[in-house]
Amino acid sequence: MTDYRDLHGSMAEAGRQATLREWARKTWLREHMRAETLTSEDLTILDERLAQWTADRQRAGSLPSDGELRAKWPALAREFPNNRDAARPIFTVEEQRDVDESRIAFELRDRIDRDQDHGTSLRQLSELYAFFGELGELDARKKITDRFTELYGRSVSDYAREHRGEPSAKAKAEPKGERILPAELGWEKYEPAFRRWAAYNAIQYVAKRDGALSAKEYAEREEYLDRWVADQQRDGKLPIQSEIRGKRVQVSELMLPYQKQVTRQEKGKMRSDGAYWRRVEDFSNEVKDNIDTERRFTRMLNERAVAGAAAYGKSFDRVKRDIEDQFALRYLYSPAEYFEFSLERGDRAQQQHPGRAADRAGNQAHKSRNRKSREADDDRGR
Q: d(Cα 142, Cα 160) in Å, to the nearest integer?
């Protein structure tokens, strides 16, 4: 009998041997399954799942190629007759879901390659997976898009753009041009934060120029920027003042060309599709308000993306990405980052003023009791 424990090998090799044995177990059980066990349709699905399970592990490097598997099969198969492993199912529920996500991602890619609309295809496949996988449609969509990105190295929308010969989402999201920070500064790690900072300055300039902000609102947003810069410096994402002085650079001058690019880009967006972008801005504000009040954002973000896609005939992924990008322009954080920031800010406030937190909790409980009492009175009145 072959020894698959490989006691003298590495942990990685032991893992590959375990995966090889699991492949042999699944294959042996499938070949020795009685014809009347499942319907022909179910057997077809089982074969597709087994093929996809094998392909996923070959891609991950934990299984050898098909030719090597066929060569090893006779020796592997001798281990399984009358083996207690036959009592276990071929696939667990978790394995079935994992394999089905890969199958649906492959089907989605195949539809895009056949020039079908990726938004419609994703919606149809998400509904199908939600029904058979007993999941919510948004959860099903997320699992499919995550698996697609994992398998093909890019999002669904970016893959569709590349297939149509269009520039990627990342290339469209950032203005073209040189980097903000010259290479000789050695500040490559600070580039992302400087881009957000410059974009925020551009939005501030436009809002002030157009009279969209009062003097008080402008000052509040500048204070918000100062707090953000301090947080980024504390986290090592922006250089501290001594480092800036040591390089003898003017930060505002470095960011100015990029700020002008962002201003032109935003002006072009509003000129070409102003109604859509105003709606996206409203959505991003609603997401922020929901984080500030409810400490939640994922469901609202998905709901607003669905609403925007339906209203303006765009894909769900496109609208969701635009909301997230607009959020980052206005608030310097992505929704997920701002959510974490708000939690940390709340924790710090609670540690500094524990009495206030207790008072707020008591007030909320009091309001809840009063609301329930009024609802009960209304019910009795009916």
A: 17
The CA-CA-CA angle for residues 45, 47, 52, to 5°, reads: 95
- The tokens describing 105, both together, are 């991602």
Query: Could you report the per-residue pLDDT of 132-154, keeping only the tens digit for each?
Result: 767 787 888 888 888 888 877 88
379 vs 348, which has greater pLDDT?
348
> Whose CA is closest to 49, among 90, 109, 108, 15?
90
Distance CA 56, CA 297 (A): 33
Contact criterion met (CB below 8 Å) for 323 and 304? yes
User: What pLDDT, on the 0 to 100 scale, is given for residue 79?
Assistant: 74
Name the nearest CA neighbour of 130 among 88, 81, 97, 84.
97
Q: Helix, strand or coil for residue 308?
A: helix
Average pLDDT over residues 108-130: 84
Please, what is the Cα angle at 105 between 335 and 25, to 5 degrees?
120
Phi, psi angle pair for 341, to nearest 5° = -60, -40
Residue 139's contacts (CB-CB under 8 Å, 6 or more residues apart) are: 130
SS3 content of the chain, % helix, strand, coil (to 5): 80, 0, 20
One-letter amino acid at 140 equals A
Q: What is the pLDDT of residues 253-304, one digit of tens each?
A: 888 888 888 888 888 888 878 888 889 999 999 999 989 888 888 888 888 8
Whether the CA torsion 240, 244, 245, 250 is positive or negative: it is negative
Q: Rounded mean pLDDT of 113-121?
A: 83
CA nearest to 337, candidates 179, 146, 191, 196: 196
